[in-house]
Design goal:
Elements (H helix, E strand, L loop, with lengths): L3 E10 L5 E12 L2 E6 L11 E11 L1 E7 L14 H14 L4 H16 L3 E7 L4 H12 L4 E5 L1 E2 L13 H15 L6 E3 L2 E2 L7 H14 L4 E4 L3 H10 L6 H7 L11 E4 L5 H9 L3 E4 L1 H6 L7 H6 L3 E4 L11 H19 L8 H13 L16 E5 L11 H10 L5 E7 L2 E5 L1
Parallel strand pairs: 1-4, 5-6, 6-7, 7-9, 8-10, 11-12, 12-13, 13-14
Antiparallel strand pairs: 1-2, 2-3, 4-15, 15-16, 16-17
Helix pairs in contact: 2-3, 3-4, 4-5, 11-12
The structure holds guanine (GUN) and fe (iii) ion.
Length: 426
């Protein structure tokens, strides 16, 4: 693995509340690991090759903590529907097409092409319930340079005739076969167990996935408390549960600190649910674009942060209409402002610093030491060209960074590094 220095205008979170910037600084990568960001290049690194990105922004790579690959090609359609109607009318019929491997190959090529060129260096991805298509997606992802977890989706009820596995037993057996096929096949692409959500999975299937997670030390991702009708339905489906999160807990699918479960949304998670998320060391994937599009609501992220729950940002394509993480940062900030103004004035809006943190180190921590330029972190970096976003002012690096998130269309990714490897350049 190569070692090198990037020279440019560096920005990353020193803490959740504070962004550290260095104008015309040096960022050192040694064998894929960040050795730090410096105003003056230390003597010990003087012999390393310097890539000169003077005038460009250099920021940590971003983690998309929740995205549905098979939904990419129909993003932006059916957006006037709420969750359950949107799933039944658009999502399930679309995902049913992935039974056809040729369809999957083509559709996934559009997703992976754009992901490679996106601000994301890491992603946690839903596929569909189809094993061949999921392996195809993983094969394609491995070539993007993005490091990812990918889930073959489990669903044995309420999917209609075209998108439902025959039984819990079949679903679990297929999952084991998929795991055997992908075991050891990739360097950058890892499997994750993926019960779609409680309405899609019988008790038997949920229990089986909980046991499989323990048996094979596999992580789990799913959806939690996204929409009022969904929450009410889960209460009917699992009457013994005290809340939606407890239903996952009953089936041993909430994970633990070392094997954290990702729960997308948590718009309606109350104190009781927050306690469960915290107790299990779960991650919340905050997907505000999706939550606005499907009229789901606004997740009170500041409350979750104050409670010490782990949080990252997800684009949730196609309920979210874009895979652009800068846009996701902006959406999260705006949603939090509306929550503060319209719902609860004791819950302060998210600051730009805090939200940038969630998109980088917050979600990145799911992958280990990822999402920062502090020493010892894996070297994920984006080199951004903001020179076409003209200004009459002499802007600070911090100001330039903020406005890239408000004007993402005017920002060009010049280079993208994942674990020290240049995976894309314009
Ligand atoms: N809940 C269950 N499946 C889905 C999905 O595909 N998208 C979203 N946003 N929520 C879900
Ligand atoms: Fe989702």
């Amino acid at each position: 693995m190569s070692s090198f220095v990037l020279k440019g205008d560096i920005a990353f979170n020193e803490t959740r509340e504070k962004i550290h910037t260095i104008e015309d600084g040096f960022l050192v990568c040694e064998d894929g690991i960040c050795k730090g960001a410096f105003e003056v290049l230390p003597d010990e690194y003087q012999n390393l090759p310097v890539k000169d990105f003077t005038g460009k922004l250099i920021v940590p790579g971003m983690t998309d903590l929740h995205v549905h690959a098979p939904q990419y090609t129909f993003r932006g359609i059916g957006m006037d529907l709420e969750l359950l109607d949107w799933l039944n009318q658009h999502t399930f019929p679309e995902e049913a097409h992935y039974k056809d491997l040729e369809y999957a190959k083509k559709a996934y090529s559009y997703f992976t092409y754009d992901l490679k060129r996106s601000f994301s260096t890491r992603a946690v991805i839903f596929a569909t319930m189809h094993t061949d298509a999921t392996v195809e997606l993983m094969d394609q992802l491995e070539e993007t340079g993005v490091i990812s977890y990918v889930g073959r989706v489990n669903m044995d009820r309420n999917g209609g005739v075209d998108l439902q596995e025959a039984s819990a037993e079949v679903s679990l057996q297929e999952t084991r076969e998929w795991l055997a096929r992908v075991n050891g096949r990739y360097a950058k692409t890892f499997p994750i167990l993926t019960p779609r959500f409680i309405p899609s999975c019988s008790d038997e299937l949920m229990k089986g996935l909980g046991a499989l997670s323990e048996e094979m030390d596999l992580r789990i991702q799913s959806h939690l408390s996204e929409n009022p009708s969904e929450v009410a339905w889960v209460k009917e489906l699992v009457p013994e549960s005290t809340c939606y999160a407890n239903a996952y807990e009953i089936f041993d699918t909430m994970g633990n600190e070392a094997r954290p479960t990702i729960m997308a949304h948590c718009v309606y998670s109350d104190e009781k649910e927050m306690e469960i998320l915290k107790k299990h060391g779960a991650y919340i994937a905050h997907c505000s674009d999706s939550n606005m599009n499907l009229t789901s609501g606004i997740a009170p992220i500041r409350k979750f942060m104050d409670a010490g729950i782990r949080i990252g940002i997800g684009t949730d394509v196609a309920a979210g209409s874009s895979m652009n993480m800068l846009k996701a940062i902006l959406n999260a900030i705006q949603a939090s402002k509306m929550y503060y103004r319209l719902v609860d004035q004791s819950v302060k809006p998210l600051t730009f610093e805090e939200t940038f943190y969630l998109a980088t180190e917050g979600g990145g921590s799911y992958f280990g030491k990822v999402g920062s330029f502090k020493e010892g972190y894996e070297f994920d970096a984006l080199v951004l060209d903001d020179s076409k976003m003209y200004s009459m002012r002499n802007l600070s690096v911090r100001e330039r960074l903020e406005r890239t998130c408000y004007n993402d269309a005017d920002v060009i990714i010049s280079h993208k590094y994942v674990k020290g490897e240049n995976t894309f350049q314009r």
